[in-house]
Known about the structure:
2 strands, globular, about 70% helix, about 5% strand, two-stranded antiparallel sheet, mainly alpha
Amino acid sequence: MALVGILAVLILGALISLPVRRIHKQLPWYVGIVAVLTAIIMSFSLGNASSGTEKWFARFTSSWIPAIGSNFSLAIDGLSYIMILLTLVMGLVAIGFSERRENSSSFIFNSLFMLAGVVGIFMATDLFLFFFFWEMMLLPLYFLIISANKEGSDKAAFKFLIYTQGSGLIMLISLLALYFIHGNQTAIYSFAFEDLLNTQMSITTSMLVMSGFLLAFLVKLPVWPLHGWLPSAFKTAPAIAIFSGLLIKTGAYGIMRFAVPLFPEGSLIISPLMMILGVVTILYASFIAFSQNDIRVISAYSGISHMGFILIGIYAFNDLSWQGVGVQMIASSVGTASLILLGEIIHRRAGTYDIAHLGGIWTSNPNIAGIGTFFAMAALGLPGMANFIAEFLILAGAFQISVLSTVLASIGIVAAAAYSLRIIQKVFIGEEKICISIIDVTLREKAAVAVMMVLLLWIGFYPSMVTSRLEPFITRTLNFSPPETPGTEQGNVDEAQVKYSFQVIKK
């Protein structure tokens, strides 16, 4: 029931945030903070079980739509637990850092509903329920973007809707295809993940069905050339940028949780292509980030570059690389959000996000300069911070599979150092080009910054906190082999082949 309780707290908080505005204009903001804090506390209560070896250490199942074989089935393992905590902590930072505007009721309502959708994605083990939560998280963010009232917010919202809804529709078609294929084979029509794992398909069919899931996940990740919606969304508001950073982790989660286990043969076949796509994404996004002056856009392309590392790590099918992917999903969310917070802190005092118009902040406001330097060092992967250990694990695992991909991906680390040091040079060093307010960092800003710093250092020095919880999931997934399928003469890769392929890759 704790799983249902976490979702219920977020949804209830969203519903309460609307009427309480009549009592006080800023009360919805406090409702949002209390709701997310309560959900975090409830999530922590499940933490002790996450070190166990059982597949699921918390589960809830209830009949939902029996006519189509769909249950309200929730469960969490180590991967889900980490992602849920990340979502809620970053949601707390986004809401806490936001300005307590008079229209905060709609902001809190959409924010909490979106967080509930993201948390639901990480809990759902019924694929129809998973799709329900997938769509549930999109509309609130669309309304948040369009209500930001910033230049280009309408265009950003339209881009977001087209990219995400279009790819979501294709995923629904693939989901229904998988559902009917399994039903025709077994006479049992079910959306349960465990049932659909036993679906037998030819390689051609498997590749076609997998492509629909993969497209939706790659759009959400996003990777080049499906990234067009993200930079414009990052420019609307800091909270929206942080929420967008959370959404992109659902793409990586979807590949690891569903695409690879449901389609192991197809995943092996396309792994070289995915690693190439990851390398291209890293290099493209890193060099674009270096050429930008808007710190919000720099943070967006920095996040896209990190997604390239995640794609390489996933399709290396290696224990080390998958551990690195888990750490990178956290490091990227925190690191990207840190740059967003830095940009907003500076904007509130200088009135601009353009680093070319800044300079000399170290002299006028050393506290902000110190914060910014710390976050820039985290972005370039300084040893002792989360990005360093994440990228090291991914590249160490990928090196065993493709030396060339690893070497090319390493260029992205050099590019990250270049754009991070450029931020320090342009913003904090040199002569002051415009008047910067000497107003020190506020209490709410200090709280948000402190959370980011603690997470970056904690994971950087103690990554086993994450990797130990991921090990059971990684072992189960990479040791997975499909049920017996028709012979290879019909175009299939048989079970023995797939087992052998995974064993070779892991070695």
